Amino acid sequence: MARLYTKTHMTKILHHILVVDDDTDILAKLPIRLQTVGYGVETASSGADALNIIARNRPHLVVCDAAMKGMNGHCLFDTLHQAYPGLPVIILATHASIPDAIEATQRGLFGYLSKPFDSPDLLKLVADALRMARQDSASDEHAWRRELVSRSPEIESMLLQAKLAAGSDASILIRGQSGTGKELLARAIHRASHRRHKPFVEINCGAVPEALLESELFGHVKGSFTGASRDHKGLFQAAEGGTLFLDEIGDMPLPLQVKILRVLQEKTVRPVGATQSVAVNTRIVSATHRDLVKMMSQGEFREDLFYRLNVVGLELPALAARREDIPLLAQHFLTIFALRYGRDVHSFAPDAIELLVSAAWPGNIRQLQNIIEQAIVLSTSPQITAPMLQKGMNCRRAGDSILPFEEARRNFERDYLTRLLKATNGNAAQAARLAQRNRTEFYKLLDRHQLIPAFFKASP
Q: Which of 8, 44, 288, 316 sits 20 to 30 Å CA-CA off 99?
């Protein structure tokens, strides 16, 4: 069972530590020692629970017991060291396990502490580990974009723009289909900005009822409406100094669009029921899968707000438009889920890769992730095969999928000939001249595709 400990009266927590131990006494006392000096602490009572937590939210440091049942601390360290080489690990070792801990330091373990230990020794070792991790992170120029897996030139170009934009406080609008990774890009921009040590707060504008959205964003004062039993700070204030991510901004009602525009212009918010405005210092990143330009023309989205939000515009392409990334993403998800579910699965069979690369992917990366996770959960072998993937995906090819060469050529020829006949009003001789083919050869092409020129003559 996992538990999260935070110091509620502190304004910021810069480091989060995961404590892993099957000793309930340690899990009760150790987080309190760490919390008193300002660390955020999450706990896990087993190595398996720890892997699930780390896959969801990577901490800055792991402190684990050497002699846990099941996956012991040394096995957990070996697993983490392979999957997250930069994540420091400290092992709490009994006298009997100290030799193993010493040997582990030669393989990359940050350090160990023998039981029983004193608080000052623990806190010094923790501080040293976090200092080292911070230096390593600062030296890694790609750390900000670690969750965005790609080898696509188009994505690399977009990320270069994102990195440049992150250095300013300009509002950024991310466009892309559902499942393309808009939230991951928003988080990456936050990590690359000078606001990275402040909060990143997100809200899906289409998932909150209109009646509650204003209160969620701007806050409210006690008694301002039925059920408002206390003052409530909105998300603009919660993200003070950091980044507020407005996901699906295209779903925001028009009345609230006016108020968002006012916040961007005046840098203040007025909570529901309040008479005074409150100054805010929050960077806005927004995202949408909708066509905001079309919505503006239909009066569904304010033009002035669009230009305020779209100071820098970034677009994430559909997965079908970046197929060179599919094997890379698939292996990335395989590693994550094999670790999370404790499965000995390490590769894809060639037919599985072919199936993944040729599929249509209407759900984009989110769909790919779901398919890989399902295959891992149901796997009984160390390799994922095409039949294992077919259980969770619709394998019918769509228009944007990769077709076999002969089928693609036939489709191109038919489309090309049809456009020629339409352009020449069914005049086969003229169409043959435009195609730079002799008439006999051209008629053979028409017969092959069962196209009759007379059908393309305009009605008198």
A: 44
Decide: 253 and 293 in contact? Cβ < 8 Å: no
Count of CB atoms within 10 A of residue 420's CB? 22
Query: pLDDT tens digit string along 4-43?
Result: 554 443 334 568 899 999 988 889 889 998 988 888 899 9
CA angle, 211 then 280 then 6, to 5°: 85
Q: From CA 16, how far away is CA 39, in angstroms rounded?
A: 6
| pLDDT (tens digit per residue) in 411-454 | 788 888 888 888 788 888 888 888 888 888 888 888 888 788 87
CA atoms within 13 A on the CB side of 237: 16
Tokens of 126: 């923790």
pLDDT at 13: 57
Q: Please answer whether residues 87 and 80 qualify as being in contact, where contact means their C-beta atoms are separated by less than 8 angstroms.
A: yes
CATH number for the segment(s) 153-315 = 3.40.50.300
User: The domain 3-139 is classified under which CATH number: 3.10.20.580, 3.40.50.2300, 3.40.50.300, 3.30.410.40?
Assistant: 3.40.50.2300
Position 136 scores a pLDDT of 59
Phi, psi values for residue 256, rounded to 5°: -75, -30
* DSSP secondary structure string for all residues of 386-427: HHHHHTTS-----TTSPPPHHHHHHHHHHHHHHHHHHHTTT-
Can you give the C-alpha Rg of the chain in angstroms?
A: 29
**Residue extents of the structural domains in the chain:** 3-139, 153-315, 325-390, 405-456
Contact 240, 198 (CB under 8 A): yes
Distance CA 104, CA 120 (A): 23
Contact 1, 49 (CB under 8 A): yes
Handedness of CA 217, 220, 224, 227 (dihedral sign): positive
pLDDT digits (tens, 9 = 90+) for 226-249: 667 788 888 999 999 999 999 999
pLDDT for 4 equals 57
Tokens of 451: 């196209």
**Cα gap 170→161, rounded to integer Å:** 12
Residue with tokens 């507020």: 244
Q: Look at 426 and 290; give whichever has higher pLDDT.
A: 290
Q: What Å distances lie between residue 50 and 110, 191, 311, CA to CA?
A: 18, 24, 41
- The mean pLDDT value of the chain amounts to 85
Name residues whose C-beta falls within 8 Å of residue 303's C-beta, 6 or more positions apart in sequence: 296
CB 170 within 8 A of CB 312: yes
